Amino acid sequence: MPTGGPTRGDAWQLARTAGMTQPGIARFEAGGTVPTIPVLERLARALDADLVVRLAPRSPAA
């Protein structure tokens, strides 16, 4: 029965499509490393998605 969440196989396929390793994907998922913009671009292409980076003004200090 599908759980609805990503599986180890999904991470392996994403890594393969993005030209990365599955352990590299796992480190991002676990919060062990922060991906760079170029890595995010590769992941976006692998997911057939657009990477959008948006800057917004900071809220005034309280």
- What distance separates the N and C termini? 49 Å
Class by alpha and beta content: mainly alpha
What is the share of helical residues?
Answer: 40-55%
Name the shape in a single word: elongated
Averaging pLDDT over every residue, what do you get?
87
Largest sheet: none
| Total strands | 0
DSSP summary: helix tally:
3
Question: What are the SSEs and their pairings?
Answer:
Elements: H1 8-18, H2 22-30, H3 37-46
Domain HTH cro/C1-type: 13-54
Pfam families: HTH_31
InterPro entries: Cro/C1-type_HTH, Lambda_DNA-bd_dom_sf
Give an account of the 3D structure:
The protein has 62 residues and is mainly α. It has a domain at 10-46. The protein has three helices and no strands. Helix 1 crosses helix 2 (22-30) and helix 1 packs across helix 3 (37-46). The mean pLDDT is 87.
Primary descriptors:
single chain; 62 residues; mainly alpha; elongated; Helix-turn-helix domain-containing protein; DNA binding
Summed up, what is this model?
This protein has 62 residues and is mainly alpha-helical.
